[in-house]
Design brief:
Six copies of one chain form a homohexamer.
Chain A lengths: L1 E3 L14 H7 L1 H4 L4 H11 L6 H29 L4 H7 L2 H7 L24 H25 L3 H31 L10 H11 L1
Chain lengths: 205, 205, 205, 205, 205, 205
């Protein structure tokens, strides 16, 4: 279970209303490579992860991604809370405004609703860790793109923090993958080993 | 942000492998009226909720739903962790097994992936609270249906706990709705008040 | 069955081409809280509604929502029928134009196709009525947002009529909920009654 | 607008509970080629159909498809209304039962929720009519498949009526297509005419 | 199987960066009536097509649509490869840029991800061919709309080629339909023949 | 462009009708980690891949995945082509049969339609290659699961071939990743290099 602590992992202080930026950053809330997808990926995978230390890592990172999701929501909220309908009109935010006013709802910048097809929990230790490495790179790239487009330093600060955390997560998953390769028994280890695989195939024939 | 506490909100001790039951209970993980949907609905709505006390309620219940989601995942995991492929074949669990082995992935019993279209965050206090009342009733009904189909007392115990919590949440949201009706100013209060609405329409004409 | 009557429930006379407004109003055709969703929700729920009077109410309101859907389509059609391709370009309507020209197709303003995940038919009288109360509030809020953004009085008139009808529907569903609470027998009545629920749980144990 | 007439277009009298059959027939309610998809396709296309007679045909057939949808729902309802939870378990209906009890909700037999991607409204007279011809054939084929699988004569009677109506609709759309080919002016007529098309391309170059 | 030949079916030489045009043309990559949908429709249907000549036609046209998809991707790539982030901002391409940079990803202009609900493979020869005739008309109309909106002759040239090919495909499918009508035996031939249908119904009764 | 060669990359000779197995194997046609997803992932990513050699690798593997998709379709077709409706009934294949007869349509075993949310093309060389490594592992795991469930040696032979190819693809992508790490200039290289990243952030501040 989780206990809520009423503080952001990193401060968010946005003073300028800008629904346009909110409309782009929302991908890190409900987009395919956003924080909600990351959290749910890891919190789902952890149950069947055979290495208990890595299962704990998945729980920790999955929990941290919830805090990241909270930061992104705080950014979007602060960018839009003083928005007048006219601001929505000029910003291209109006389509979102019609169905959600300035409420938060998890979608991608381009409008696709968050959905579980955007991540995988495969029940195979090697596979799940590669899925996680890819996820962290995809999140990092999305932050790169946000930083290429958005200039406001008040937004860039928390975004840069979040991006740096993705790189750390990537490193943690890389270390976990190395450990799994050493510790998995022959029943599970298919990594770069066609010779072994041939034997397994023989046995089942 | 959230801190993880390594215990279930209510104990889950399943001793009998039964992928068939897992395939049905998974709706309370990734189904339209499940715990993940509930959690995301409340954690999304809380930002724009004008009454701070109710915003806190949304945070608390949203956080508790994560713990419920965890219990449901524990049930599914315990029902399938010792599953042999032949068990999957006889149980009708095989379609899920092909794409996820015994890993946890949020979908409904009928196969629909979890997606944000299954809940709403509307940015209007009255509307969001009615959405929440409906959500709790829908979750309650899903638990009713699980209890009608599944006999195993080891499964029924945690399910009955979860169902009872839905009823409590429903009551909390009902109280919050009453408070909102009293406290919202004329700018926001449209509840059962066509007379007021007419005046507002006049003003904008 | 239904018989078509060739008149709109309320007149729609739009004289100014404006694809921009059409692009926003389309949420009340194919959006999550629009008239098509409302109609299908009620026309689906009516079969299993145990109280025959309320089943009739669901049929009546579901039928009226089809007329509302027709009005929304008429608004969109009149806003775009004289549209030249250049109008689509300047209005941001061009993405829709590529795939539908000026044809009507049910989607939300943000592009999400209409889909059944956006409403629920739960087969439980109390639950279905709460779902309906929430639906009417969500529709009312969408109309509020349209009225905040769109100034053209030719559009505002039919929209205000539609909004007022949502409030009436909300009242009708509220009355139906009160009747259900009185008339349902113990087998079905779970409303705010944990004491009864405990007994039912005991019986099945 | 529509007026409801409280009778089915063709009688439905099912006396045997069979959730298994319901689970298959539901494709003609919420499946890709079902009655709801047909109705929405035609009622959407009618606005931009330049030939007024064909626009009227679309309204009439779209309205009739609502009556067909009603018959399908009546079949499903009668097959499941006396269903006990144990019936759901033995029939494979249980996944649906968890999320909807015996309530009606539009999905395909395989579980896909009804969604607007399953039909098109293109805003081009020739194209829309071909879309409609294809739709009637797809519906006819679905009825063929239902008749191949289901033996109960009480179900077969209304299904055969519905299938026959699809064939009639197909014929009506074929006649409408012939009329359109004659009546459309050079601005719109691209049917089998690359010579004309070349000229139009020249003009715009 | 397929062998790749490193040339485009028709040349694509775009010299002006224009993400706005890319955002519209992408519908012919991943939109409901685009080249990927066409290719997958035909390559799926070919297996159960009873007339081997038509199965070959489906393979040929399905293979050609891959080449068309490649041309569309080349157009999009050339329109965006020299794009600077500021270009994305001014062009409305920024929402796509956040999640894909200038990478190619199959979606519709309005944002809907490519999905199999957008085409059908019905396993019935007549039905599948009508589905194909409709598909070619829908693709043709999408090209019409692109030509109405986009002026750049460098883009118009390959688009006009692609449009002309749709017309040819439509003709091929029309010829195939005529052949099927002659060659199918009574078990399969339902085309415009209620008399025969009645007999088949009798036999199964 | 592609040229079709009328032979399977590896022989498929299935002599026993078994719709049950078809229903599971279909995940490698239209499932989240199947051959169609793989093909489209690579054929989409190749345009923006800066290293031309790797772009060629993506084209080659993407083309080979089409041949794999063809083999999977051949397996499904051979398993179901002589299927009688009664076979569908006993095998649980009936829900699919209603909407597709024995036609091929890309979905997952559990019913989810193939959709682009199941893969990513991110426009970043490192990220796209990690996405590809993960994809090959996910496909490998799906083949593992098929081999755990299905005993028929006629099916196992081509499946084992396909699985072995996934391992080879994984190796190729691993080599490509190493080359990219060496060849990318500072503008693009973020791999495990927070020091460099800090400088880039400084520059943009």
């Amino acid at each position: 279970m989780w206990n809520y602590e009423k503080r952001l992992q990193f401060p968010v202080k946005i003073t300028k209303t800008c629904p346009k930026s909110a409309q782009l950053i929302i991908s890190q809330f409900g987009g395919p490579d956003g924080e909600l997808a990351a959290s749910m990926r890891y919190l789902s995978q952890r149950y069947t992860m055979p290495c208990k230390k890595t299962a704990g890592l998945l729980t920790d990172i999955g929990t941290e991604e919830l805090a990241h999701m909270e930061m992104i929501c705080a950014i979007i909220y602060q960018l839009t809370k003083d928005m007048k309908p006219e601001d929505a009109k000029t910003a291209g935010f109006d389509a979102y405004y019609i169905d959600h006013t300035s409420g938060l709802w998890p979608q991608a910048a381009g409008g696709i609703p968050f959905n579980a097809c955007e991540f995988q929990s495969k029940g195979d230790a090697i596979t799940d860790l590669f899925e996680d490495l890819a996820a962290e790179q995809k999140a990092r790239t999305t932050y790169d793109n946000i930083l290429r487009i958005i200039d406001d330093p008040e937004i860039r600060e928390p975004i840069k923090f979040l991006r740096a955390r993705e790189v750390v997560h990537f490193q943690r998953f890389g270390e976990a993958l190395e450990q799994i390769k050493d510790s998995l028994d022959s029943n599970n280890y298919y990594y770069f080993n066609p010779e072994f695989d041939k034997q397994m195939m023989q046995a089942r024939k």
